[in-house]
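#dry-run=false #mode=assembly
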Amino acid sequence: MNNIALGRYMPLNSVVHRMDPRAKIMILLFLMIAVFIPAGVWGYVLLSLFILLALFLSKLQLSFALRAMKPMIWMMVFLLVINVLVIKTGTLWFELGWFSIYSDAIYQTLYIVVRLTLMIIMTTILTASTKPLDLTLGIEKLLKPFDKIGLPSHIIAMMISIALRFIPTLIEETQRIMNAQASRGVDMENGTIKEKVMAILSLIVPLFVSSFDRADQLANAMEARGYNPMQERTRYKVLKMTGIDYVGLLASIALLGLCVVLAVVL
Amino acid sequence: MSIKIHQLEHVYNQNTPFSHAALKGIDLEIPEGKVTAIIGQTGSGKSTLVQHLNGLLIPTAGTLDICGYHIQPLLKIKDVKQLRKEVGLVFQFPEYQLFEETIEKDIAFGPKNFGVEEGEASQLVRDILPVVGLDESYLDRSPFELSGGQKRRVAIAGILVLDPKVLVLDEPTAGLDPQGAKEMMTLFMRLNREQNKTVLLVTHDMEHVMNYCDHVIVLDHGVVKQKSDVKTFFEHPEWIVNIGINPPSIIRLKMRLKEAGFDIPDEIIDEEGLLKCIKRQVKIHE
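#status=ok
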């Protein structure tokens, strides 16, 4: 449970950590779009280089970013199997009776794997280098212009920050309930299907009950302090863009442009 | 058979940047049939230690002998599953582990996990309800409509129904009113006296340690700072103050009296003795 790398903040002191969260979110957005542009092999090489540079600058270990991939491995294997069975174009690489593998199936899978890997690494860099509260502050500021068309940016940001805030609490709670039920003889790993369903039920129900309790208490606590979502609020922390933020933004926009050009030319 | 702990160590997230040693070489012998208190500040390793007692955690070094089980590093959880029947662990706020539709089903959940048949389990539930001070009218009610204190009784019944030889209680009275807390402690004391169960009590409440326990173990940053019987322990109030815990009120009173110039021997730690001592000295002064 403690090994979840996805979305965990790593307290390091690096250029990327010091960047403005708004800039980092925008860079992530540009890169995300770039990843989905079919810019061919060179496009992905360029993107990979850029992302590896960001990883290096953020002082994070590559293994840390890759650990976030672990849950995805099964999905990728599944994808490979489906693609091999379904896609029957390109050159024939392998044939054994009814079973055959075509080049396009492998390429397709490879593209998806590369895209997923890049996306996970960049998202990991963002969440590992930005405190959750800074992240939501960034999102709130970026959504601010949409207030005019009735999008409640502050409420959305508050919802995100509450959700983020309670992730560790929920993990802890889950661990606690699992321990308590294990003490009553629940075995989460072994047993028949019926036993496993019971085991999961014995975890989910208490988790729901305590989450609703907590939500209730939180709502009361916020109201007791006069929280009003419609009110204009001031911040202790004021975001400020600096040189490095503009450099990062320009670089990512340039990269996105390059990918578009590559895609059009090819 | 007593519980023997030898050079027990536990490191969380070993071999990662988050590695953290919670227990650093614990040597203990916990006597059978007694009530032993485990005290220490938050983060001292109390919870980690008690989770070893029923095999929820396996030590990263050292050994543990309990109820005929020899627990050592790299043991598989499967091998110790039956130990959980022998050592009942009641976590803090156990009412949060209730999940079934009826109280009967919830209490019977534990025995069924250990392979007890439906009918027998239902009989066990009927036997255990009066022990925790509830009657049969509760059987078909939902655990979620009870009050906090009643919920806790049901949750504790869910552990007691397994008839463990060792009962480990993590802050069993947290969040209860004084009356509820007293009833809860009386229940555990009765189990200890009448069924000779070994009771381990993790607590912050020094009054409980003084009134109910036979032995005290003090943990501090993952090591055993102090182990003694209760009487010796409270004869040395400086031990308690040193680990940042507030002594029981009677000991605080004694310390204040000593400061004020009263001469009170170390071995007096009860109300009556203190009273006699004060009277005698006041008389001398008159």
